[in-house]
Amino acid sequence: MFCPISAVPNMAPRELSALEKFLGLKKPHKYSTQGVKKVPVLQINSGPPLVGLGTIACHLVKEAKRPDLLGDSAESRAVVQQWIEHRVTKLDRCRKDDVKTFLKDLDHYLQDMVYLAGNHFTLADILIYYGIHPFMVDMAIHEKEQFVNVTRWFDHVQHYPGVQHHLPLVTVLRNRIYTSRHH
Amino acid sequence: MKLFVSEGNPHCLKVLAALEETGVKCDVQYVSHEERVVPFISRPVLPALLPPTGPHLFSSNAICSYLFEVGGKDCSDLCNQWLEWETTELQPTLLQALHMAVVLEKGSEVSKVLQGPLNYLDQSLSKQNTAYLTGETLSVADIVMWAALYPILSGSSTILGERNSVKAWFERGAKLQSIQSAAQKVLQGKGLQGMKTFLQRQPNPQSKEIQTCTS
């Protein structure tokens, strides 16, 4: 049975380690998980542990002094937070039917966007990319064709320097989507 | 800037409270539950905010954080953590509790449903020993959590039981003008029953739990 439910949250510590490498953080952190949902936990020296994928990811970005990845205006910061929340509340507990709806909405949204927060690459792109990767890997080319904007965005993100890292590259139909680049 | 809300929708209580608390200037428009305000989401989703630039915001917590940031208050790591906990842990349980109390009319079950999150909240607050969730000053996390819990907790004095830390913290919020006036706008003085129409339109939270694969 297709059951991403348990697989996706378990990936959180790996995602966070990959994010650290992307951010160029020198000393790797160690992550534990808590509860049945295996929510990631980061023990930091300066206080109580941080809990939750979105919270820890934002913390790492601040630690790496890359505030630009959280958005460059109040509006884009809100957009970034919103998609991170969407990732942990919707995508991480999606069944296969729900994923299609998620991708359909995302596709509509990306129609006139390069990245989730507009023209700038942010943490939201990284976390949504990590989150939908397991579904994109399993999808046939004709299924991906239904989500042409998602596919274009996905390909941008997986080729963004340092992002793809631990995940296999997903093939997209280049000649259809990138016609202008090839001719 | 324009905020779209609907009566009886508990998520709208949060944004109306945040709007009043921050004093940010914004038009508020009441629409029906079925209104599709956000063009890129295929089902109706409220509240929604159309900021001066950029796309619609469709998450109540992101809207609240945005209003607080515009009002000059940023969200710390701890603040982020409470907001994430609210959406991932509290909301699914809360929706189940509201459904239980309003749609199934089994108010007596609510304490049991909510005991996990309330215990966690109580332990965290008593360990921290601060007046608010993130320290000695009010943050967006307090407003979001008060607004989320207000409908169910203000109507029943027994749900909190002996959880004195949550009690003291909750009473601080329940007294606020911003929370009370947002509750009045959303619940229309009908208490939990004010949310009945909204809750009847939501998928049954329990049956979803069963269908979700857990292996």
Please render the helix and strand layout as text.
The complex is a heterodimer of chains A (about 180) and B (about 220).
Chain A lengths: L3 H7 L1 H12 L7 E4 L4 E4 L7 E2 L1 H11 L10 H16 L6 H14 L13 H16 L2 H4 L3 H11 L15 H4 L1 H4 L1
Antiparallel strand pairs in A: 1-2, 2-3
Chain B lengths: L1 E4 L4 H13 L4 E4 L17 E3 L9 H11 L6 H27 L6 H19 L11 H15 L9 H11 L2 H11 L8 H6 L3 H7 L4
Parallel strand pairs in B: 1-2
Antiparallel strand pairs in B: 1-3
Helix pairs in contact in B: 1-2, 1-5, 1-7, 2-5, 3-4, 3-5, 4-6, 5-7
Subcellular location (chain B): Cytoplasm
Family (chain B): Belongs to the class-I aminoacyl-tRNA synthetase family.
Protein name (chain B): Methionine--tRNA ligase, cytoplasmic
Describe this structure in words.
The complex is a heterodimer of chains A (183) and B (215). Chain A contains ten helices and three strands, in the order ααβββαααααααα. The termini of chain A are far apart. In chain A, strands 1-2-3 form a three-stranded antiparallel beta sheet, covered by helices on one side. Helix content of chain A is 54%, strand content 5%. Chain A is globular, with a radius of gyration of 16 Å. Chain A has a single domain (11-159), classed as Glutathione S-transferase Yfyf (Class Pi), Chain A, domain 2, CATH 1.20.1050.10. In chain A, helix 2 (12-23) packs parallel to helix 3 (53-63), helix 4 packs parallel to helix 6 (123-138) and helix 5 packs across helix 8 (148-158). By secondary structure, chain B is mainly alpha-helical. Chain B has a three-stranded mixed beta sheet with strand order 2-1-3, with no helix packed on it. The N and C termini of chain B lie far apart (45 Å). Mean pLDDT of chain B is 92; it is low at 207-215. The interface between A and B is large, with 39 and 33 residues. Chain A: InterPro entries: AIMP3/p18_C (IPR053837), Arc1-like_N (IPR053836), EEF1E1 (IPR042450), Glutathione-S-Trfase_C-like (IPR010987), Glutathione-S-Trfase_C_sf (IPR036282). Chain A: Residues 59-181 form the GST C-terminal domain. Chain A: GO terms for molecular function: translation elongation factor activity. Chain A: Keywords: Elongation factor, Protein biosynthesis.
